[in-house]
Every structure is written in structure tokens, then in C-alpha cells.
Amino acid sequence: MSARTRRQFLHDCRLGLGRIAAAVLLGRTAATAAPAAVTAEPRGPHFRPRARAVIQLFMGGAPSQLDLFDPKPKLKALEGRPLPASVIGDQRYAFIQPDAGVLGPCFEFARHGESGAELGAPLRHLARVADELCIVRSMHTDQFNHAPAQLLMNNGFPQPGRPSLGAWALYGLGAMSDDLPAYVVMSTGSGLSAGSALWSSGFMPSELSGVRLRSGRDPILDVATPDGIPAATQRDTFALIDRLGRRRRDVLGDPEIDARLAAFEMAARLQVSAPELTDLRSESAATLALYGCDPDQPSFARACLLARRLIERGVRFVSIYHEGWDAHSDVRGNTLQRCAETDQACAALLADLRRTGLLDDTLVIWGGEFGRTPMVETNPALGRSEGRDHHPQAFTMWLAGGGVRAGATHGRTDEFGFHIVEGAVHVYDLQATVLHLLGFDHERLTFRSASRDYRLTDVHGRVVPELVA
Amino acid sequence: MRLAPPPASIAPLLALVVAGALRGQGGPDFVREVRPLLSRHCFPCHGPDAETREADLRLDWPAAGAAGLPQELRDEIVRRIGAPADDPDRMPPRSAGAPLAAPQIATLRRWLAAGGVYARHWAFVPPQRPPLPECRSGAPHPIDRFVHARLEAHGLRPAPEADRVTLLRRAYGDLLGLVPTPAETRQFVEDPRPDAWERLVDRLLDSPHYGERMASRWLDLARYADTNGYEKDRPRSIWPYRDEVIRAFDRDDGFDRFVVEQLAGDMLPDATPEQILASGFHRNTMLNEEGGIDPLEFRYLAVVDRVNTTGTAVLGLTVGCAQCHTHKFDPLTQREYYGLFAFLDQADEPPYEVPGELVPEHARRTPTERTELAAAERELRSSWPADAEPLEGRFLGWLDEQRDARVDWRPLRLVEATSNLPRLDPQDDGSVLASGDTTKHDTYRLRLRAGELPLRALRIEALPDPRLPDGGPGLTYYEGTHGDFFLHELRIEHGDAAVAIARATVSYAANRFGRGAVGGAEMVDGDPQTGWSVHGRIGERHTAVIELAEPLPADGEFVLQLDFGRHFASSLGRFRLSGTSAPGPLQAEAYPPDVDRSLGRDAADLSPAELDRLRTAFLMQAPEVRKAADRVRELRRGPAPVTSLVMQERSADHRRVTHRHHRGDFLQPREVVEPHTPAFLHAWPEELPRDRLGLARWLTARDNPLFARVAVNRQWAMLFGTGLVRTLEDFGTQGEAPSHPELLDWLAVEFMARDFSLKELHRLILTSATWRQSATVDPAAREIDPENRLLAYAPRFRRDAEFVRDSALRAAGVLDTTRFGPPVRPPQPDGVTEIAFGSPHWQAGSGADRLRRSIYTFHKRTAPYALLHVFDVPSREHCTARRDRSNTALQALALLNDPQMVEIAQHFGRALATCEAELGSVDATLREAFVRALTREPDESELQAMREFLAAQQPRFAADPAAARATIGVAADAAVEPDQLARRAAWTALARALFALDEFVTRN
Questions:
Q1: Which of A35, A40, A270 is facing B893, going by the closest CB pair?
Q2: What is the tens place of the pLDDT at every residue in B538-576?
Q3: Model confidence over A45-86: pLDDT tens digits?
Q4: Which residues, numbered 20 to 79 in chain B, qualify as contacts with chain A under a Cβ-Cβ cut-off of 8 Å?
Q5: What distance in Å separates residue A186's CA from the closest CA in chain B?
Q6: Which of residues 37-56 of A touch B (CB under 8 A)?
Q7: How do strand A117-120 and strand A109-112 relate by DSSP bridges?
Q8: What angle do helix axes B334-343 and B295-310 make, rounded to 10 degrees?
Q9: Could you state, in order of their start, the residue ranges of all structural domains in chain B?
Q10: CATH classification (class only), A44-221+282-467
Q11: What is the pTM of this model?
């Protein structure tokens, strides 16, 4: 590898840590890349992106839209009585019987900001940045169980094996940071239903997978030098690997060895950049207070602050998973608890991104994998009462930042919050719109695998212009 | 080439025009150059799928036949593909998003100018043994003849043979997935015999490590894992299947036979336990245990996965596309997809108790000793609390009560048993066995006849049975306690009227979920959320007694309706019904038959032994000694048997009906589809039964054009990093054409001629000059062929994850070579598995469990073992034919810092410090270290680099004993002298660096 190609390689290392899809796709690493991976479609945006980075706030378990975003006074009036059978149709439910009685909204709603966005009482912090939000009340999905629905939302398919939205973003846009992985994943709630498939690169090269940022002294898996190894020894180790590697390259003439050495250079850089990233001492007391963040304790708030720092450092895609919204029982208490953990930090993140000018080209996506039923879930045998079951027909998400129509509330559900009556946005439509904001025509952003051109949106999806500024 | 004319009915599907030869006269190569373009750019609208066909034009099957496309159509195509981009006539249309580039248009034009003549897709034509080409190199080996001829056609020459040490290391890596030990290296290098190489290859093929290496790629295809997948991702026991795969590769009794056993070993005549275990291949599908799923939907998805996996693993075809619609590129219709589905749709999915001889010794569970049980029963008596009422008095009181309350139960005659779905079969002992599919809400209706006397009460015995999950008595197989049931409502009808129930009791009841009450009354309270379940006492007999408010007349017929269901499937698996005319109140009891008999006899007639048994029965239910009783119960049950998941074909009178599903949707079944195979492949021999075994035989038949080709190509890819067909998963029209088509066919035919022996195939390849050539890059060849597809030199590529970890263990001298058994948990960083649902903790094993080969590592699908996953071991959530081979900074970090790699380096460091003490020489020890890790001797510059490194670390550790102690970690045993601490730490640091070298992880 010439000095130029070596420099090029290091430059390319920005993408997804280490070896780079672009290089792979060009067949640079001969023995490894699939030729079929060379697509007719050029990588890089199809048109000018409105967002260059994404923060995804994935509320695993599915928050209750009826208690936070989609007020339905009619449910109060109907409380305890079943919905008309004609409304329910043949929908299958996970736990409840379709003729279960209705549960009224658990909280008061009020209008906020100039836009007059309606929010439930537990979202008192989000209310302060209501004008940044584009609230989509008319989301719907095909899946009513957690793991398949989370996978559909993130990977466009209800079974594991497809690339995640983050992998698609990276595949399309590449990376911007020299020192950090381009796609970072944090998890601050309980364990995730769909597990690591949610940030998998699926059939794409594995370096397009999300890299977990963890709490503790080893923020990236194995990034910390082991106990007892002096820093100087670690430096010498890298030097010895480099020296012996170059010697071997000279004997064999194989430029692949340079690629390996470059990966070690990147590893050495990560050993510096990762602790720097997660050391929040450089943040002001005011900022920590804004997020409500204890710098030393893992929390959703800390993850949000880290997300801002990651975006500042050029990371392309950040996902924060906060699992725990699955309120089959006590939806009121669950919602209050989850909001106590997340509401202030979500609002702080938007305000902080606005303050630092990052919000203009950073897309923030908030939501779960489906909604919750207007009907109550009560099941003494399971020790459940006053809960809500899974509801795929209608739920709410919100977007903010890069290219999004701020201050809008899109879509409408019927008086029970059961069906969408206006402006339906399927999961695929949301994905098409997100790709649109990143500069891609979702029908043309394809990846060839097993001899088929795959899209994130399969054969579905349409961009929803009402969500775009 | 001979091609029989296809039957008229399937001709249109064949995409076949015999053009006399594969190459049209003067035009481009149809198979390699033209067909892929047509397939990619034209077939989506002009291909096999009638639903998306435009303008009634098919380009996959030209009506003109062998003559090629008619002139008129050719002219039209030329005009359209050449039209300006904005011309509405332009093809493909802009909206299709797949424009043709200028050179591609030129290729199509040349083809059309030469007549537009078709040839059948190469992979669908059975391979014929091609003549060996001539080559200037004069190589005798057939493989070399093919490879050298192509190199020479490109003006290239093969590389010289690699040196002996490199070859040795390459062979160990390829065949065993391990580095050789220094002793093994010396043995080979010093072997002067002319056939030393052949002897080495034979020895490796016979090594017990061979099967462990070969199995891992098959397990990727089989999507083998130790957990169920999806949300809960709970552990499952299917490791005996994994062991059988390893044994099968060691046995090498033909890959065709292997595949038949994987798909249908359970159906072979007089199937052996090994063959039954092998049928676990298709039990590696995921199982969704998420609360509230529809179990039938996920069973459907599992069969979909079985069809797709069969397509990928055996045929090398992406049949999965046809689940939702007729394949866009390959001639596979949606109906044919469900034809394959129908073959795989007839199995039940029981656990299988693994016979003792197939359980490795270290995993055998000691059976309960008779003496141990006797001791526990004595303990039951002796633990009677001193402050309680004396045992004998309580016992006699109880005995009187039980004798008074005892009822003679008479069997009720079962007239008819029906259900919404499960099959209810009367058994010889008067009981009923439920089997087949079950839903979240099952209803059994049992038409019964009362006996000679009026019926005052009836009894339900819930019976254990080895055919039920965990021994029953229930059918619950996911989410709930396996083998449990939940009877939420019970109803008796006489004529048209419901019979009033006075009272219901049960012998035992406990609930797994929630705090809701369970018991007899809960079965008759009209509340579907309460009922009877027996969590905690699975595998035992339980009873319920239902007393009627008014007796039913003698000989009258009545219906007992049982409703089961929770948020998971929970029906009863085996039960027996009996009745009595005895007046109440009655209490359900579940005494063993001998105890019950004794209770029915005159007290005076009871022998001391009978009294003793009765006393034990009393103690078993006495609250005073519950703990001791639980212990007896546990011992009576004995250790849980080792089980594995297998397939079991249903009987001919218990068939599922398979439908085509519109858009592949479970909820949209359409017409019924009988089992049948795709028309474009070889014919179905009428003598084969149309079942799963027949399918397996058809798939592995010698006239299957794909089976042998796909298999040899995967072996080639494993040894050379890239297949002759690079798309290991797709030999269809969209797959890549082979780099050496004649070699592929020759190997396929040879493989069949050698009865599908993988070991012979490996021997054949390893004795070729092509496999043995040097990996030193030839710059001229790299210029012409940057991907080295022509094999001008040996390919260098990063070894598999398992090689990296296992070889480090072997170099360090601590690899534990125990084979088989339950999966083990070597150390990994904290927080890897906690990301998954339920945040499970990874409790690393101790001792040898940390040092076993990687194939035995517990594989959790939603959070795979980090060190292996970072080196591209797939998640095993679906069939994977080709592993990625990434090179990332995360791998660099893992090699240096992962706790498992660090621990192995600590073992290595200790060994090196010992070695230095024995040899008394730094350089000799450095050489030893180098040879153990990299097999070859270091050169002087490498030696110098290591010397300097070692010398620099020594004082650092000497100055900081705490750091030294932490660095040597597990190797910090009491034996290490304080003054040796720093030395051992320095060696550990060196060991760590050696494992991180490119050369260590790369095939050279």
C-alpha cells in the first residue's frame, strides 16, 4: 500500500470503525468482499441531505400514546364499557380479550408553545420545547409482539437478519469521525426484546453494525487496557505489533497487512478518544443540571448528554434504547416512572442541540415499536390491573431537528384512539421519510445480498411530505 | 451436452433454450455475460412472475425456442435500450431504478446481433465430467490442470510451493482449526519420507479435532444456538445435535447420507439414536416465547425458515423470495414454494431423551441411588418435629379419615372426544392423549357415558407421559412452565342443559404467573383468568374431583367440556376420566395406586410393609415435614434426562393441510398445496414417498444439478477463502458465475464418484499444487487479478473466530481437548449479555470450562459471545452460508484487551517463564514463544524486536509489583517467587502481542 493509499485508508477508517464499506465494496479486501455487493447505485446521497446525523430515542416496550400524546376524552366517558365490536374487527391481541372495557386517559392534557402541541401532564419538560416537535399521531405497524415489532421499526423486517436503520445511514453516508465509531448504541432501560439484532448490520459488512457505548471504565467493549498493564507497555505493544507487521508486509508484499495495522492504529486512538468522550467533567454544572444528569451514574440522562457529545465529535448515528414502557399493568404509574427517567433529558437534549446549533442538521426520533390499547388490561391471575395491551393500529412518535417540520402535529385517530382516520404513517413511511431527510430516495438506496437488491423499506413506504419542513 | 426435451407442461418454466452450445456463435457468453443482465434489469417485469409481467413479454423464456429471439423483437429491444434516458420508450424504464450502463448495453447489442440465442442457466444443468485441460506447467494433479490452464491463458504462472512449515500451519488451520504444536512441527519437518505430506494429511483427517473444525460452518447453516431467540431468548437443550454433527464429520460416511439424516434422520427405517438426533437440524428454528404471541403463527414462520434454510443449505438457492410471490429471477413459482413447505409441514416437534451412551461421560447425570432414596425416606420419619403431636397418633387419625373418604372410581366410557385443534387419542389404559398443534385457547369436548349407577361425582386424572413437554401432564412448551396446563373452565352438559356443580377439589395446585388463586373452585367459577395448574410438580399425576349437585342417571350420556388457556398454549396432554356414585363431600387425592389399594382394604389385613407405605404416604403430605417430603419427591423423580430437539413425522391419519399463503402472510391462506418439487429441477422419482424423507432423498440425488456443486464449492471456500462461485448462498441466475466452471463441475462429479466423501475431497485438494503454493503476492498477478480469483498465489485471509481463540489456547498449552457435552461459558467482558431481555448475567465457568474449544461455547442468539462475535461468528438467528471477514478496530481491541485473550496470554506467559528457567536463555525462549504462536522460527530482525520489547517491560514490572501481579492474573499462583513476578509479567506482555499479530490470525 502506497503512502497515499495508506492515508486514504486511514481516512476511510472513519466509516464504521476499521475497514470501510467503500473499500470493501470496491473489492479492495480481495478475499472477503462479495462482488455482488457492488451495486449499480452509487453510495452517497441522492440529493442534498437535510440531516447529517441522527439520534434515535427508542422507547422499548411501547409508551402509551393515549396518556401522553393523543387525548381522547371520549374514553373517559366510556370508561369500563367495551368498544363497539365493529371498531375492533378481527384484531388479535397479546393478552386481553377484544371485548375488554375501556380505560380513560390517565392524565390531563394541555396545549403548549406557539404551535399549541397537546401533551399529557407527565411531559412537563418536553412541553417547554414543544415547538421543536413534529408529533405524528398516526403511526401504525404490522406487528403486535415486541421483538418482531422492534425489528420492523429498526430493520424494516420482523425477523432478525436485516441491516438496521443506522447501518443503512452509514452505508449511505459514511462516517465523519476519525476517532470514534460512526454508529453508537446505548441502552439505559431494562434488557431489550429484540437484542443486538436491533443494531446489526445484517447482511451488510459487519463494520456497519452499531458499536455499544457502555457505562463504566470499559465504555467500548475491550477498549480499556487490562488491569496491571502499564500505559507504556501498551504503547510498546502497539509498536511491536506495528514493527513485526511491517516486516511481514515487506516479506509477503500483501497490502492487506496494512489494513490490519491501520485497524490497530484506530484501536489505539479509540483507547484515548473513548475515555475522553465519557469523561463528563468538562461539562458545566449548568449543563449537567439541564439534563438532570449525575456524571458518574448510568442513566438515560447521561446517555442523552453523551449523544450530544458524540454528535459534536462527528458520529453519524446514535441510538439510545430505553426499554421498560410495557405497561400491561398500572399504565399510570409506569408512564410516570418512565417520564421521570426520560422527559427532562429529552427536552434538555433538544434545547442543548438547539443551543449548540447542532439541531439544524441532527434528526431526533422518539418512539416505541407500537402503541397501547384504549381497552384496559386487567388480569388478576397475572397480577395485572389498570394496564393497556399492545396496539399496532395507531400510536404516536415525534421527530425534531434536521429538516423536520417543527411545531406540527400530524395525523388523527378516531374518537377512541383505536383507528387512524387521517394521515396514516406506516413504519415503512417513517423509514422512507428518515432516509429522505438523510438525502436518499428509499427506493434507490439498495444493497445487494443473496443476489437480491434489498431496501430498508422492502417494497413499501412513501415519503410523508407533511413531516418535512 | 445432452439435454432431454422437457415435458411440455414444464417447458415454459425452464428458462431453457438449447442453443446447441453454451456459447452463441460470435456473441458474448450468454450464461456469464448476458443472462445476469437480463435477470437483473429485465426479469422483474419480463420474467417468471406473471403478476408483475408487463406488456405480456417474457424474456426469461423466449417463445422462439432454440432459434433465439425473433428479429423484430431484437430490433425493438435494441432501439429501446439505446433510447435517450428521458425517452418514455427507454428500457429499463427510469422508474425501475436499474439503468443499464453503456458497456452493458453494448453486451446486449452484441448478443442480439448474434441472434439473441439462449442457453440454460449453467447451475440447473447437471454437471458432466469435463476433460482435463492441457497446461504448460505439466502438473499432473487434475485441480492444477484446471487452475494452471486459466492462469496461462492470462499470461500468469502459479507460485512456487510454500515452505514446509507454512504448509504445515496452513493444513492444521484448514483441517483442524488449530495451530500445530512445536513437537508436531518438528515431527513433520524432520520426516524424510517422500510421502510425508500425504501421511500428514491423512493424520489430520483422522484427528479428533477434524469434526470440531468442520462442524462449525455447518452449524452456521443449521442456525444452531443454545437459546430460543426472539425476546425471551431462553436456553434450550439441543447440544446433543451439535455433538452428532461433529461425530458425523468425523465418521465421514458420505455427505449425501449426512444431509438425509439432517433433514429426515428420524424417518429412516430403524432410525438409530444418532439419526434421530441429526433430525434436530430443523429444530434449530427460533421459538418465540414472548407473552401473547399466536403460537400457530410462529410455527408457520418456523416452517418458512425451514424451507428457506433447506433452499440455502442444500440447493444454494434463495427460495425465500417465493414465499410472498413467484421468484423474480429464478424459475420458482410461489406455488412451488408451498409445495416444498408441504413436505416440511408434517412434523411434530417433541423433545428426545438422549440414550446414555450418547451422553459424554462428563455430562452424565448420576441416577438416584436406591440407598439415597431410602435414606431420605428414613429422614422423612426422623425429622418429625418433637414438639408436634406424636407421629403415630397423627398417622392413624389420617388413615381413618382416608379410609372413610376413599372412593372406588370406575372408568367412564368415552364415546367421542373432539377439540378445536389438538388431536385426542384414546389410549389402552382408558386415558386420552392430546397431541398435534395447540392454541392459546383450546376446548376439549368429551362425550361420556355414566356407569351402571347414577353418577354423583367425576374425577379427572392429569397424567404424566414421556411424550409431553418435560413429561407433562400439560402441553405448555413455551413461556409457561413446560409440561404445565391451565384448565380455566369446566362444564358438564346433559341433554341441552348445563349440569350444576356442587363442589370441585384438586389434589395439588400452584400458579406460575401472578398471585391469582388456583384450585378446584377456580375451574367452575366462570372466570377465565382463574383455574387449575400444577406448576412446581411437573411430571407427576394429579387429580380433580367434581361433585354434581344432582346425580346423573345411570347409563346416561353427558358431555364434559374443558377450556384451557392463558396468554400461552396451556392445554392438558394426557388425562383419564372416572366416575362414582359415592355421596360427597369428596376430596381429590393423588395417591400412588398401591397406597390407594391399601386404603381400600380392611385395616386388620394390612401387612407391616403396607402400613409402612401408608405411613410414608401420610408423611409425604404432612405439613410438618414438607421439606423432607420435597427432597423425597425430588429423588423419586430422579435427575432430569438429557434431551435434545428432534423432528417426528405425523402419522398418515394426522396430516396438516398446507395452503399457499397470499403475500406470504400467515393470516391469508389460499388454495391447498400438495407436496411437490420445483419443475425446473430434476424429476421426482415416482417410487419416492411424498414426505420429508422422500424430499431429502430427492435433494441429495445424483441427478440434482445443484447438490454436489454447492457442497464442493463450500468446501473450496472454506479452504481458499472464496468459493469458485463466490455467492455460496446463491447458484441461481443472480448468483455469480464460477471463476473456474470446468473445475467446479469436475470436482462435483469427482465428489459423487467418491461417494460424497468430504475427507477424500479434502485430501484431493490438499495434495494439489494449487493449495500448496506460496502466499507471497505476485505483483504482476495482483495487477491483472487484484482479487486473486485465478489463484496465482495462495490466498491470505483472516482465519475464523474459532481458530483465533482455539489456537491461542493451544499455543499457550492450555487447550482442554474434552469433546462434546453441554455448552460452556468461558469468560467475557461484563455487560455483554445484560443488554438482552431480562438482563441475564453471564456466569463464567471455572477450570476446564474456560479452556474448551470454541464450538462448545454457549451461544446466546440475542447477545452472542463477544470474542467470537467480533470476529464474525453469526448470531445464528437464521441460516448463514457465508461469514463476513471483517477487519476492525474492535477486533484489535479484543485481541489485546478481551478478558479471555488476556487470560490465555497469562497462561502463555507462565509457560514461557517456566521455559526460560529451563532453557536458561532469553533467545531460545523467544524462539519457543514465536514457534508456539506462529509455527515458524523468527528471523533476526523479529528476534531483535521481541528482545527489545521484553527488555523494556522488565524494569517497569519490577518497579511495580502490584501491576506485575495484576498482569499475570490467573497465573499468579503461590509458586511464583517475588523476584520472578516481573519476569512472568514481561513474558505475559509479550504473549499478548504475539496473539495480536496479523500473522497469528491470518492464513498464510
A1: A270
A2: 999 999 999 999 999 988 899 999 999 988 999 999 999
A3: 999 999 999 999 999 999 999 999 999 999 999 999 999 888
A4: none
A5: 9
A6: 40-41
A7: antiparallel
A8: 100
A9: 11-120, 253-352+656-704, 407-599, 899-1003
A10: alpha beta
A11: 0.89
